[in-house]
Amino acid sequence: MLMTFTFPSPQEFFKRSLFPFLMLLSILAIPALAGDNSHGGGGEINREGMLSNPWAIAALMAFVLSYIAVLFEEKTHLRKSKPVMLGAGLVWVFIAIMAPDYGIDHHTLRAAVFHGLEEYGSLLLFLLAAMTYIAALEERNVFAVLRSKLVTAGLNMRQIFWVTGIFSFCLSPIADNLTTALVMGAVVMAVGKGNPKFIGIACINIVNAANAGGAFSPFGDITTLMVWQAGHVEFFDFFPLFLPSLACFLIPAFIMNFFVSTHKPKAIKEKIKMKYGAKLIIALGFATIAMAISFEQVLGLPPFLGMMTGMSVLMITAFFIRKTGKKADPDFDVLEQVANAEWDTLLFFFGVIFSVGGLTFLGYLELVSSTMYDGYGASITNIVMGFASALIDNIPVMFAILSMNPDLDQFQWLLVTLTCGVGGTMLSIGSAAGVALMGVAKGQYTFFGHLRWTPVIMIGYAAAIAVHFWVNGSLMGVE
Questions:
Q1: Alpha-carbon span 66 to 17, nearest angstrom
Q2: Whether the model pTM is above 0.85
Q3: CA distance linking residue 408 with residue 321, whole number of Å
Q4: Which of 106, 201, 350, 406 is 20 to 30 A from 335, alpha carbon to alpha carbon?
Q5: Each residue of 61-82: pLDDT tens digit?
């Protein structure tokens, strides 16, 4: 079967490709081409002129072009991990070619690459354990039962709008914003069948609520997880972001609420039961989260070790579910859930981390840090990063910030965690939750449908920042 490819319109091409491309060039390439050589490296490495080297610029272009390919995933159906992994490989090949001219030996190159491997490995193992638990809960019909109860509750459209939003906000800190959006999206798709207007606005509310809810928990989004694992914010220190996140969800939801009708949808009869062992796995999931926190807080061990230990308990439990009792289920195998994990996403992180790591090694991100954080200040820069996350996706933006490692206090680390977490909601392509729902509710929740509500989402974004400065600024001694 031949793959069909529809070339985008000029407006869409600019929106999805050239605009992020030009923004990246303006932030990264222009200072390099200006010949700023003030950021040299230490030791015997001579970094003088490195940024303006043609191979360094080629490395930058490899990353930009690979990310443009990611933006066209919806059109080409080329999984996002593939171009980004290729881009990461090319970035480091170009660095290796130019390395001898700057006194960079093979040992130094390998050390830089293995530094990225350490960061990626810890993130990979943490997410693999979390995804396996989510997949196991889904296989045991836990999320299907939740969806069934909401669908058959007999609520009117406006009540469903609020219930799915509130559930998204509350579930996202535990189950992550992507899973939450998919579960709640299935609810509005079932209830609002034949009513694309309701599905569109309800999906916007779900994306906003899921991203807002994920911003105040290390488990709610990849960006918060990255900040936590980097050691910039302790686990319980994320919770001051609760009120800003709540404002980000409630204010747009309150405005959109008036555009949702109050009529009741057609009654749906759907009965689904959880499979044998589902409640035990739910309990193990919470125990694993507690284990990851205690490993980090009490024992000083990395959180991924607690997650992997909990995953081993899940695998042993699955063995007994398959083998013992009258309700034994021989088809339940956790290794199948591992195989069905979102490997495209996990490998996408590989490409992002190693690409950004290469650009950091070259000194591009040091230039961005000095230009933005030193030139404009931490608050303005961190707020701007939220807008960048809407265009480029919050994961590479956050990893770039962590790679820059600016000198920020806890208030500012929380601010950038908040802005990157909820800033992606301004566009449907700015977060994994939005992209996923566009696929599920194709033709009913769209880029331009979301764009019409962007001004309302921006009010929530501004409110979240204002509440953070108002509440947490005084608590943390920020003037």
A1: 11
A2: no
A3: 48
A4: 350
A5: 998 898 788 777 767 778 878 8
